[in-house]
Design goal:
This protein is mainly beta. It contains 1 helix and 12 strands, in the order E-H-E-E-E-E-E-E-E-E-E-E-E. The chain is globular and about 45 Å long.
Length: 174
Amino acid sequence: MKYKVTREKNPEAVIKREIQSFDYALLYRFSECKLCKAETLTASDWNECMEARLFGRQKEFHVFPQEGYGILVEDQKEDRQPSDSKTVEIASGLEMTEMTSGLETDGMASGSETGQPWREAVRIERRYRLAHTDTWKTVVVYQYLEQDEDGQNRIVLTRLADLNQQEDDYGREE
């Protein structure tokens, strides 16, 4: 699968332009940590914001309002399904599902208007049960693996991808 990472110098403009393309928001504020649907955010939510993550299955925008920049991670849309899937219990009552998309071999695609190239990686999807919340039961996290010079895989990026209200299916899209 392919993805790209872009550093945005004007996070407010990106948020205004693309807020509808994100499903959820995680805001770290001076007074609280807020996890909600992105569409419910108001201007006052940003007043005390130190850091935020707007996310969905296709992309995440990690914003640092006080520093004046954000990191946008986008997945290239794929027509095919993940090539491998397994669920393992990693602790008592905590399960993790890994879904791996295979490497593509057709080279680099053209980047965005900022000129960032698409990078090839293996994406692992992990699902975790959440404690202490009545609204969300599981969180989906993507990890991107690339090979280094010695051919060893390493995690180069981790991002939030989805939240689910049901425990039984772990939010798997049918």
